[in-house]
Write a structure and sequence with these properties.
about 210 residues; two-stranded antiparallel ribbon; 9 helices; disordered C terminus
Length: about 210
């Protein structure tokens, strides 16, 4: 959304900034997603499970599947996963590393299982953002519907249009951004709906806004 200024975006909400922060301090390691490797239910990319810092250092000594990557490589892998429609999830801490997963709704044993059982909101808090559709730009391709794991987008009839248009259910929208990044017409944008203090509540109740 052009009305959102760069200074309004917190470091925790910018995955590139977060990966640069981790890379400047600690080890970044990546491995294949064990869930997708085992389940074989989709063809989304698998090499995008991140580990950071001491967590990564310990597991590098235990597993041959982990590979140390540079910050630029990590950003490229993360961007590729996002383009493929994978949901960022995990706990990334400034002080002690952590993990960053890229989950699908069909294979993931944790995030995917909660999505399939309709209890994702019990595990994951919505972000500070909500998606919004510009009906004039929407061509009714349904790509956003396909990319939404939370059932927050419906195709509805609009007066004066022969095509169905996408509509966002704000109660279901988690503000993950997969619909935004997947819309080639840029008909779906983000609105900033929560103040920075909202993340303080989020930190108390869940591992990470990602």
């Amino acid at each position: 959304n052009p009305s959102i200024k760069s200074e309004d975006i917190l470091p925790e909400e910018d995955i590139h900034a977060l990966l640069r922060m981790k890379g400047s301090q600690e080890v970044i390691a990546v491995s294949d997603c064990d869930c997708r490797i085992r389940a074989h239910k989709c063809n989304r990319p698998t090499f995008n499970c991140f580990e950071f810092g001491k967590y990564a250092e310990f597991n590098l000594n235990q597993s041959s599947s982990l590979k140390v990557v540079s910050v630029d490589e990590a950003i490229a892998i993360s961007d590729d996963a996002e383009r493929a429609g994978l949901l960022k999830s995990g706990g990334i801490r400034k002080e002690n590393g952590g993990v960053l997963c890229h989950c699908c709704d069909c294979c993931c044993n944790v995030m995917g299982a909660t999505i399939r059982n309709g209890v994702a909101h019990q595990l994951r808090n919505p972000s500070r953002y909500r998606a919004k559709v510009d009906n004039a730009s929407c061509i009714g391709c349904k790509k956003c519907v396909e990319r939404c794991f939370f059932g927050a987008i419906k195709m509805l009839k609009v007066t004066g249009s022969k095509k169905l248009k996408a509509f966002i259910d704000e109660e279901k929208c988690m503000g993950c951004g997969l619909c935004v990044t997947g819309c080639e017409q840029k008909a779906v944008i983000f609105n900033l709906v929560k103040p920075p203090e909202y993340l303080d509540i989020d930190r108390e109740s869940s591992p990470s806004p990602f």
